Amino acid sequence: MEMDMWKYFGITHADHTVMNPMSLAKTEEILECLHLPDGGRVLDIACGKAEFLCRVAQRYRVTGVGVELSPVTIEEARRNVAARGLEGRIELLHMDGGAYAPDAGEPVDLASCIGGSWIHQGHKGTLQALARLVRPGGLVLVGEPFWRMDPDPEYLTLTGQEAGLWGTHAANVRIGVELGLALLYTAVSNEDDWDRYEGLQWQAAERYAADHPDDPDVAPLLRTSNRHRDAYLRWGRDCLGWAMYLFQKPRGAER
Q: 156: exposed, middle or buried (C-beta count within 10 Å: 0-12, 13-18, 19+)?
């Protein structure tokens, strides 16, 4: 990428409510499964625009902390929380999620990281890190890509990915189970979900380019956007999946 990463993602995700390929309807399915207690505490690492946190707080009588590294997205998150009147219940921190440590080590009822497993060096590391932060019987929620089929080498070259970066859907579940977590639910994005997620990015990039013709970042913005668009249409739509995985930490587990 030839422009600031955070600026690029801020532009291309301008029209997204949630910054991942999960539909809002399926996100609501996950919310229904949480059954959080009154007075519960929630932590969301890489919270994006804090949409998930806001929806959790509107459904349950809980407080939450959202951690976001992007200087662009954290401002959108702050506006979102303020517009919902949730400033007293949601705290937002502009920092690296990998460096976050809760005050006094108090465990939370739900720890989530939806689409940011790079923060903890992958899916397994993310599950381990989140599990350490939740109370026994608490919930761990992650959003993670998976391969629906073996990716074409040309696709990997074009996107800068490696075949071993992701596992299969079954492997994503198995990793959590092998760590001693109980799988409660999965929600999987379909082609319509993916098409909307990708298409909104192309639209936002083209609109920004038309509205800011003098921005020197327009050329690299469109170059990168078009490369990702072509990779998605030629290969990604068939080979790359996305799911949210809800696990529970054993009630008798040590913290």
A: middle
Helix (H) or strand (E) holding 66: strand 62-68
Return phi, psi of residue 137, to 5°: 90, -5
- pTM > 0.85: yes or no: yes
Mean per-residue pLDDT of the chain: 95
pLDDT at position 155 over 80: yes
Q: Which residues of 31-58 are buried (b: 16+ CB within 10 A; e: fewer)?
A: beebebeeebbbbbbbbbbbbbbbbbbe
Contact at 8 Å (CB) between 83 and 17?
A: no
Q: Is the Cβ–Cβ distance between 90 and 63 less than 8 Å? A: yes
DSSP 148: S
The rounded radius of gyration (Å) of the Cα atoms in the chain is: 18
Domain boundaries in the chain? 21-190+241-248
Q: Which CATH number fits domain 21-190+241-248: 3.40.50.150, 3.20.20.70, 3.30.1330.60, 3.30.2350.10?
A: 3.40.50.150
How far is residue 117's CA from residue 189's CA, in Å, rounded to a whole number?
18
Which residue type, as a one-letter code, is found at position 232? Answer: Y
